TrEMBL record:
Gene3D superfamilies: P-loop containing nucleotide triphosphate hydrolases (3.40.50.300). Residues 43-309 form the KAP NTPase domain. It holds the Pfam family KAP_NTPase. This is P-loop ATPase.
């Protein structure tokens, strides 16, 4: 295998040199719009950035954060999943904001120290009696048969010790509850003072502070909900804008599974806390597919440069037009292809077809015929623009208008790529001839055997053998 095939670049978000570099989906436009929106806000806000897995949420917010830095904005990026081992996210949020204040020339150290002291006071007031109560209830739950036999034995061994200190625990718990009641008004004032000081410091910033919280849908549901609630209750301050990055349906499903909350019956729980949801568009512009495919094929060594084109490029374009995979799904498929590719370019067309997947088509003939129709339909749409975009030559005596829709794929391979042995046409012809032939097996196997992954004794084994090769290789 060629080493270039394994030259798989990884995203290096910690060291982005220039914002929006490699922007294949025109995300820069949304980033600039969001920046303008944030600058105009006269109050605090909680925004949700919603997109499915693999549609570039992290890429976008990382590059947007870089853009905000380059345009002298205040920005914080937090990976929520990396912090969900904590019980309460309040301290993490406050600590990140405190650190951001240090970079402002308008906020001095004494003010930050005062803010940190109030943060500590709020944290103390948030200390809950629930763990103590839960521990006591849990022991009784175990005693009532709510756990397995092994834990039952532990319970029996520990019950005597527990009973001997039960009165002491109850007394301390009662004392703690009474103290919480006595200090209730004081704790309320502590929170008021915290929000007031946070607001005063935020107001000294020249521009709003954008706090991006990523990977929220990967967190523990209880942590994710608590984080969102803490933001709304403690940090809803003018000039601080939170951006929650998530796959919203997935997060709502986690909430439903964990709490039994049903969005269909009870409404969208997150809308209680989110002011505005931005749906990261699922780009379907076919011209974007071209750029993405060129880049990915160059990345795995199938194209010599980003200006290069070959038969595999056009065939992958057709497959992508059919499958409409998002960027991450497409990369995964191409990585599989790069691992399993052969030395035979024609066989590689078959391999790529099956890795991309032929479902829901009944058989390979219907599948590739559908792909060819999609390529032709795409290539002949806006013909003049396509010719100009690809700097294609004039095709002899044929004018563009004379070219039939069904001919574009073959003509590009022959005239522009100088590929006269158009295998896709050949294999389609073999299937069509087989339908009319008294010996269809001969018609098919004479063509398929040249691109079979193993010795072919019957055409029915063609796809099975290839699939077996793919499954074993992975």
């Amino acid at each position: 295998m060629n080493a270039d095939q394994l030259n798989w670049l990884k995203d290096n978000f910690e060291n982005i040199e220039k914002a929006w570099e490699g922007d294949l989906w025109d995300r820069k436009r949304l980033g600039i719009q969001l920046t303008s929106y944030v600058d105009r806000l006269q109050c605090g806000a909680v925004l949700a950035l919603d997109a499915r897995w693999g549609e570039g949420k992290t890429w976008f917010v990382r590059h947007w954060a870089k853009h905000l830095n380059e345009t002298q904005h205040n920005v914080i990026y937090l990976d929520a999943f990396a912090n969900d081992y904590l019980d309460d996210p309040f301290l993490t949020i406050a600590a990140e904001i405190s650190e951001a204040f240090k970079t402002s020339e308008n906020i001095d150290d004494s003010e930050i120290e005062s803010f940190n002291e109030k943060t500590a006071s709020v944290l103390i007031s948030l200390a809950t009696i629930l763990p103590a109560i839960a521990a006591k209830v849990a022991l009784h739950w175990i005693g009532l048969g709510g756990a397995g036999e092994a834990i039952q034995e532990v319970y029996k061994d520990g019950k005597e010790v527990y009973d001997s200190v039960s009165d002491e625990i109850t007394g301390k718990l009662k004392e703690h509850i009474e103290k919480k009641i006595e200090n209730h008004q004081l704790e309320k004032q502590t929170i008021v003072d915290f929000k007031k000081e946070l607001g005063e410091l935020a107001n000294k910033l020249n521009r709003p502070l954008v706090f991006i919280i990523d990977e929220l849908d990967r967190c523990r549901p209880d942590f994710a909900i608590r984080l969102i609630e803490r933001i709304k209750h403690f940090f809803d301050i003018p000039k601080i804008v939170f951006v929650l990055v998530m796959n919203k349906p997935q997060l709502l499903q986690s909430i439903k599974s964990f709490y039994g909350y049903d969005s269909e019956m009870d409404g969208d729980y997150l809308e209680k806390f989110v002011d505005f949801t931005i749906h990261l568009s699922n780009e379907s512009d076919v011209y974007d597919f071209e750029e993405v495919i060129k880049y990915q094929l160059f990345r795995i060594g199938e194209l010599k440069s980003l200006d290069d084109r070959n038969e595999l490029f056009y065939w992958l374009l057709g497959l992508q037009l059919d499958k409409r995979l998002n960027g991450r799904e497409l990369i995964k498929k191409l990585n599989k292809y790069a691992l399993l590719r052969t030395r035979n370019p024609k066989k590689n067309l078959i391999l790529l077809s099956l890795i991309m997947g032929q479902k829901p088509y009944a058989n390979y003939h219907i599948f590739i015929n559908s792909i060819v129709k999609k390529i032709n339909g795409y290539l002949c749409t806006d013909k003049h623009h396509f010719m100009q975009r690809h700097n294609l030559r004039t095709w002899g005596s044929n004018s563009i208008s004379d070219i039939e829709e069904s001919e574009w794929f073959r003509l590009i391979l022959e005239k522009e790529l100088e590929i006269t042995d158009t295998f896709i046409d050949k294999i389609l012809s073999a299937y069509d001839s087989a339908k009319q032939s008294k010996d269809p097996e001969y018609q098919l196997i004479s063509v398929l055997k040249d691109v079979s992954i193993s010795d072919l004794d019957h055409s029915n084994n063609f796809i099975k053998d290839w699939q077996s090769y793919i499954d074993k290789g992975l």
